């Protein structure tokens, strides 16, 4: 038995690892009563006094207020059998025997755990934090043979994690090649490496996480990446048409976020020319055209997805940017034909493009109603088109609801895309019903239910699901417009009802509408963000789920 001076008043290693109370004796009572012999050992005083400078502990020890020795993994996490939880927001101080040279770029990720989950929720909020925390994606398995501490690697992984937002439908092999920075050209064209690094700066700069800071020299580094991309785009024969289309449409979205609308129009116009190269004949199917240019079946899928994404970008250009039509009529007909007869509900680019197309068609119908005067009031033709569009949107919403219940579609990125498409489709319906709502009680009731549905879906979105999506702001603005009941019909309204010859709301679809109280769009499949957006949607209306009262 040890003397009193040797008795420690802390837990032994065995009790600490099992997380049981220790009496500090040698051996302690817990180890003495164990069925199997346990070595009751304590840390030496020299070990316990060895601490790292304040503020450099790992995130796990910092969160639980435990001592940390700064190792990777630290002894505390190792003893607790949680080495994967040992993560650092930045590089720990060097030991005395290490080189005391200047630190690297400051972008740091744990070398043993490069695919760590986001540390956003484990750090205190500090808008003045100059360090850059890593929000690394999970691509399925770690990549080897690369420097995980490299700044450009981190930018590429950021882009790969958010590539779904930019409409790039890459296979897992091509995504990993981008994250690796593979410039050999065997799996992915080297231009995508520069594109990923350029877009990585954009994602880091516009991220909703307050832990991201503007990188030192970021403007100059972005310029360097843009010059490399432009150089490859202008080099004759350097890119195939599909690669050019994917790069140009991503650059168009880049310029939208940068608010450079002139560069956006130039990129979109160039993408229009490339799309005509991929699909030169109006009578030929899209798949046949893509195979004719030498694309494999796997790349044909990417080509269809890229063409569908062009429709979404075109709608953005008509909605957000005062841009002229950049696509030829024959090309638009072919792209619309793709979404009508070649529609793939398991392709999120097709789903998003179809919702955007409905939004644009509804906007055109509303504009036609507002532009006509009472002497030439819209009648049966306008009503028939609006009714048909409302039915198509309802059918599309059923597809979205079914897709969210499908296991293959309910992945992290797809769930957010489908819910955003639900908001866009509902906004299109809201715009149609808002035309008739001032004079029609049924249209007014349906409009109110649609607005509440938009607000309810918005509540289930995380902040990262809609950051940088100006298109949603337009949808919220449409849904938030106040509808005032008018007891005295206008001349246009009387002529419309006379021409149509119906007493009920002409936009009411014949089939039963989707029961929003049982919709998967309301399920919080992804992490829900803080409420605070719905007030911009409902303007004081509580976004509760009300029962259908037909």
Main β-sheet, in a few words? none
Write down how many β-strands occur, each being a DSSP E stretch of 2 or more residues.
0
In which range does the helix fraction lie?
40-55%
Radius of gyration over C-alpha positions, nearest whole angstrom? 29 Å
User: Distance N terminus to C terminus?
Assistant: 84 Å
Overall mean pLDDT stands at: 69
The SSE string, one letter per element, is: HHHHHHHHHHHHHHHHHHHHHH
Structural class: mainly alpha
Strand content: under 5%
The rough form would be described as globular
The DSSP helix count reads: 22
Give the low-confidence spans: 1-8, 46-50, 90-149, 208-213, 508-517, 524-550
Task: Describe the protein.
This protein is mostly helical and 550 residues long. Among the domains are: 1-50; 381-550, no CATH class. 51% of the residues lie in helices and 0% in strands. The chain has helices spanning 13-18, 29-32, 45-48, 59-64, 75-79, 151-162, 172-180, 191-206, 218-234, 241-257, 261-278, 286-292, 297-319, 329-341, 348-371, 380-404, 412-436, 441-459, 463-466, 470-479, 491-500, 534-538. It is globular and about 95 Å long. The chain starts with 12 loop residues before the first helix and ends in a 12-residue tail after the last helix. Residues 1-8, 46-50, 90-149, 208-213, 508-517 and 524-550 have low confidence and may be disordered.
Quick rundown:
With 550 residues, the protein is mostly helical. The protein is 51% helix and 0% strand. Helix 10 (241-257) runs antiparallel to helix 11 (261-278), helix 13 (297-319) runs parallel beside helix 15 (348-371) and helix 15 runs parallel beside helix 17 (412-436).
